[in-house]
Amino acid sequence: MPRQPAPSALQALYCDHHGWLHGWLRQRLGNASDAADLAHDTFVRILGRDQHAAIREPRAYLATIANGLVVSHWRRRELEQAWLDTLAVHPQAVLPSAEDRAIILETLEQIARMLDGLPARCREIFLLSQIDGLTYPQISAQLGVSVNVVQKAMTRAVGHCFQILLRDD
């Protein structure tokens, strides 16, 4: 378990910059509630880091962490909306439970994070294969690339996802 910074340093960081960070996040998110949640999450991230050196530019440091959380927040909102749009076209009897919906949304968010690091063409090939169920020759024909290009892109995508899974464990 990583050692945590001295409580006094973290307290000072929090006391000196929490108000600023909350305002910064409120401007980007448009509401105080989400801003408060992400400001809290920013400081939780700092607690989990194994960094003992003094932070030279605290606002830049906080903004960098918070910006990543804002990106994740908006990505999650987009995924939730897409999921809700999908559910809206199904009859009530086939709708998943609240618990199942939460699990599905978390899984979709993990997949989105994994695919974010891939080049657009590689991501497209991966999704055509894994989501649409197309074969490599079908993907090749649809995108106008060789089967070899599809194979290399799939190898890269699967390797990339595997590396992220290893890193997250």
Automatic annotation (TrEMBL):
Record-level Gene Ontology MF annotations: DNA binding; sigma factor activity
Keyword Repeat in annotation: no
GO biological process assignments: DNA-templated transcription initiation
RNA polymerase sigma-70 region domain span: 13-78
Presence of the UniProt keyword Ligase in the record: no
UniProtKB keywords: Sigma factor, Transcription, Transcription regulation
Classification via InterPro entries: RNA_pol_sigma-70-like (IPR039425), RNA_pol_sigma-70_dom (IPR014284), RNA_pol_sigma70_r2 (IPR007627), RNA_pol_sigma70_r4_t2 (IPR013249), RNA_pol_sigma_r2 (IPR013325), RNA_pol_sigma_r3/r4-like (IPR013324), WH-like_DNA-bd_sf (IPR036388)
Ranges of residues in domain RNA polymerase sigma factor 70 region 4 type: 109-161
Listed transmembrane segments: none
CDD domains in UniProt: Sigma70_r4
Family as reported in the entry's similarity comment: Belongs to the sigma-70 factor family. ECF subfamily.
The protein's name in its UniProt record: Sigma-70 family RNA polymerase sigma factor
Source species: Pigmentiphaga aceris
